[in-house]
Hints:
This protein has helices at residues 4-10, 15-23, 77-86, 125-132, 159-173, 200-203, and strands at residues 55-56, 89-95, 102-108, 110-112, 115-119, 135-139, 145-155, 184-196, 205-208. Helix content is 25%, strand content 27%.
Amino acid sequence: MVSESSRKSSDSPHGASEIGARMAPMSKKGAVARQPARHSRNHPPKVARKVQPTADRPFAPGYGIVGSQAGIGLLPWSWVERKMNRCRTFWLATIYAGLARPHVMPVWGVWVDDAFFFSTGRKSRKGQNLAANAACTVANDDGEEAVIVEGQAKQVEDAEALERVASAYKKKYKMDPRGMGEPIFMVRPGKVFAFIEKSFPKSATRWRL
């Protein structure tokens, strides 16, 4: 039968590990000998959580946007990830090579490691524009729950990164973009905007990365 004192010890916040430490063998100097860290299949080591970008409000005077500390409404970064992962066709805006006007086209793409990846032909208008000016904007296809990503497009050369992107493409589109023999670009966000139309003044959110 378990005594009351034993039961209280096992129910303590430290649990059995605290009891084990008390019963650990003593060294010659009288200090408790450290026990090697052990991880079972049921209790794997903890993995450090990814640092989330800091959210604030976008600059949009005249739209009634409340301050970042006024009530609730700032969207979490996980909302951006979810919307980008669920979107099938995106809008990509680039700048015409040699001209000061925008060019917009729909593209397929995937969201991997907090960045947007897509492929386009070198001789396509998008490809030529990006070769002259890497600045671009990517938006999902949902105006009611929108995500807008501003950044610089850079061709991906790293084999491991390309493998992760190809894996995401295969899962989403049932194809490997590497098979086209054209560049695969990464847009690492500089700024991200997001909002829910029905609650725009409270949900409008901006991240600076």
